[in-house]
């Protein structure tokens, strides 16, 4: 399953290398990471980056709650 992230999409990253790669400036698209059974094997790793407009809902994108330890 692709996973929504907090980042807003910008290509390329605003800085490279970046000290904190979170892009919190609102834009048209939000970053999704990973892939699902409907995508190729190369998209299954978490480093695979894609984007969608925030209100979209589909069977292949979800969320995971995370917090700082």
Write a concise synopsis of the structure shown.
The protein is mostly beta strands and 69 residues long. 0% of the residues lie in helices and 25% in strands.
Q: Total helix count?
A: 0
Choose one word for the global shape: globular
SS elements, strand count: 4
Q: Element order, helices and strands? A: EEEE
**Average pLDDT over all residues:** 80
Helical fraction equals under 10%
Give short descriptive properties of this protein.
single chain, 69 residues, mainly beta, 4-stranded mixed beta sheet, 0% helix, globular
Can you walk me through this structure?
- The structure is a single chain.
- The chain has one domain.
- The chain is 0% helix and 25% strand.
- It contains no helices and four strands.
- The protein has a four-stranded mixed β-sheet, with no helix packed on it.
SSE order and pairing:
Blueprint: E1 2-8, E2 30-33, E3 49-52, E4 61-62
